[in-house]
Specification:
A hairpin with a 2-residue loop joins strand 8 and strand 9. The chain has about 250 residues and is α+β, with helices and mostly antiparallel strands. It has a twelve-stranded mixed beta sheet, with helices on both faces. It has five helices and twelve strands.
Length: about 250
């Protein structure tokens, strides 16, 4: 069995990526990196047949594997295919979401020094929050950016990002210091989530693991924690003796 991992174009893996996101069934937070040229695409070929693909960041997190997918018919060979890919591409890290099981498995099997980067959230319910006198005004229709105002004062701003894998979209917001602890953030996220549904998208969000205020805000707005974004350093000594380790 001859396994080949080789550079390819983002267009070469479009079909594989559709299968990947179909199996993920969640927001893939780095999904736009390959078509935007922020990562290199790799094809995984067995006996002349493409059976999977991978993505490695070339910007922001150079050398970090962010996607690795093998079609179900070859899933029993995933370790052999992944190790062959590692030895050819020689990445230094793996990034994975815990709500994408096969990526998380690779991270735990092949990495040391694993750390949590972000808490991931997905819509759960509409809590029915109210904020007396507050109005939501769109400030950029094309970008779905909004301002939360009360008595002509801007309390917060936020928006909806659509460059993630459909049908998921990412919510973001910022509450200005003088209006914090008044419920403005949770109210704004709730309203952005409602507009996201109106656009036919599923609202999601994420925040830094150390940002307890943002976690509380997102939970109050009706989102729930659905996973964590992790990263770890690849331990090449964990590769099996059947595959030669790099010198």
């Amino acid at each position: 069995m001859r396994i080949v991992a080789q550079h390819c174009s983002a267009s070469d893996v479009v079909g594989m990526r559709e299968l990947y996101q179909h199996e993920c069934r969640c927001q893939v937070i780095a999904y736009s990196m390959l078509p935007r040229g922020l990562a290199d695409s790799w094809s995984i070929v067995v006996g002349g047949t493409m059976v999977g693909y991978a993505g490695i960041w070339n910007k922001h997190y150079p050398g970090r594997v962010s996607e690795f997918y093998v079609i179900p018919a070859y899933r029993s060979l995933q370790d052999e295919l992944f190790q062959a890919f590692l030895l050819t591409a020689t990445p230094i890290e793996i990034g994975a979401q815990t709500n994408i099981p096969h990526m998380a498995t690779l991270l735990y099997d092949y990495c040391d020094s694993i750390s949590q980067k972000n808490v991931l959230f997905q819509y759960d319910n509409h809590p029915g929050l109210a904020l007396s006198g507050a109005t939501l005004q769109i400030c950029d229709d094309s970008a779905n950016e909004w301002l939360l105002q009360r008595e002509e004062q801007i309390m917060a701003k936020g928006g909806i990002l659509h460059h993630y894998n459909a049908p998921y979209s990412d919510l973001y917001m910022e509450v200005f210091p003088q209006f914090r602890r008044l419920g403005a953030g949770s109210y704004l996220v709730q309203e952005l989530a409602a507009r996201c549904w109106q656009l036919g998208r599923i609202p999601c969000a994420r925040c830094n693991v150390d940002n307890s205020a943002s976690r509380r805000t997102l939970r109050r707005a009706g989102l729930r924690c659905c996973g964590y974004n992790l990263a770890g350093k690849i331990a090449y000594e964990r590769l099996t003796p059947l595959v030669p380790s790099p010198e």
